[in-house]
Design goal:
Helix content is 46%, strand content 12%. It has 328 residues and is of the alpha/beta class. The chain has a single domain, classed as TIM Barrel (Alpha-Beta Barrel). α2 links the parallel β2 and β3. The protein starts with a helix and ends with a helix.
């Protein structure tokens, strides 16, 4: 029911996008996409090791890349943004959040098409070799028979807490063993794997805090600690210093941006559902509030690729309104 309703809500935007792209020239922009999980095939997405709505298959990832290449987009890295973009062109930046080992499946496509990507790393999951807390919640609640809607409600409630509080809650519910990875699907990179990844030609490493901490739940000292501890670990183990941060779950504030800038970051990516129109002022806070789109869980990525080229998109706001109004 939920998926069919989502498709119904998207339909007017999809029809409008086809009309718009046929008769109007899309505005030049930097379009950023966020990915989390890469499944090698559809079967992996049905194992319930992780929430499948956060993932996309490698076949769909390939389709996404080929679609935007065929429509004249240039794939770029964070350094390209800081060096300045030609506002007469359109660009794509690929980002992967969290630090899942399965992101390694992107490398053959990056090499084949000679395109860069940014991998944002939450470092304490690597240090402790522990699952991400939302996967623990999803897997354990599914095992107990909860619905996806019930799990989403509980997840949203937990997002108002610090990471320490979230993990303490989940350990109390399911035990410490629940944080042990059960496969290559749900585990993070190891330190050695992260180092190898950072040495790849088309890879940039980004900061995603120590604990995937939702920074708006922390005071200034906590924000700074979460960012700097992750930065130190990444530098000490890869000899690279990220210049871009992804705010976990997209939550940010003026205080978060202030700390991020003070700790040396020139760019920050959010989950704000938007294109980043050119030119981008590298000296302004615009670079600290870059919007992104998400293809996770989509069974029809090419439709969404077409939709995201349009300069008028409404379904996300309609869907969020329906969720808040009728399904909470």
């Amino acid at each position: 029911m939920e998926m069919s309703l989502s498709s119904i809500v998207k339909l007017p935007d999809l029809l409008f996008a086809r009309f718009y792209l046929r008769f109007f020239r899309e505005k030049n922009a930097l379009v950023i996409f966020t990915f989390h999980l890469l499944f090698r095939n559809e079967e992996e997405s049905t194992l319930n090791h992780v929430n499948p709505q956060l993932g996309i298959t490698t076949d769909h990832f390939c389709q996404f890349v080929e679609y935007y290449l065929s429509h004249g987009y240039s794939f770029i890295s964070p350094n390209d943004i800081l060096n300045g973009l030609d506002h007469h062109q359109s660009y794509i930046m690929i980002t992967f959040d969290d630090g899942y080992f399965n992101n390694i499946h992107a490398l053959p496509f990056l090499k084949k098409y000679k395109i860069p990507a940014v991998f944002f790393i939450s470092t304490n999951n690597i240090i402790d070799n522990k699952c991400f807390w939302w996967d623990v919640l999803y897997r354990e609640r599914m095992r107990l028979g909860a619905s996806a809607r019930e799990i989403k409600r509980e997840e949203d409630r937990l997002k108002t807490r610090t990471n320490e509080e979230i993990e303490s809650y989940l350990v109390g519910k399911f035990g410490e063993k629940a944080f042990r990875p059960i496969s290559d699907i749900d585990r993070p990179f190891t330190t050695a794997e992260l180092k190898n990844l950072s040495n790849e030609k088309y890879v940039s490493i980004g900061n995603h805090t120590s604990d995937h901490a939702i920074l708006t739940n922390y005071d200034l000292t906590g924000i700074r600690s979460q960012i700097l501890c992750a930065q130190d670990f990444i530098y000490n183990n890869t000899k690279t210093s990220p210049i871009i941060i992804s705010y976990p779950d997209g939550f940010y504030s003026d205080e978060v941006i202030k700390v991020a800038k003070e700790t040396g970051f020139g760019m920050g990516v959010t989950t704000d559902f938007k294109k980043n129109y050119l030119p981008i002022n590298n000296l302004a806070d615009d670079c600290m509030r870059l919007g992104r789109f998400d293809l996770g869980g989509s069974e029809e990525p090419l439709q969404l690729c077409e939709l995201f080229r349009s300069d008028k998109i409404f379904y996300k706001w309609i869907w969020n309104f329906l969720n808040k109004r009728y399904f909470k």
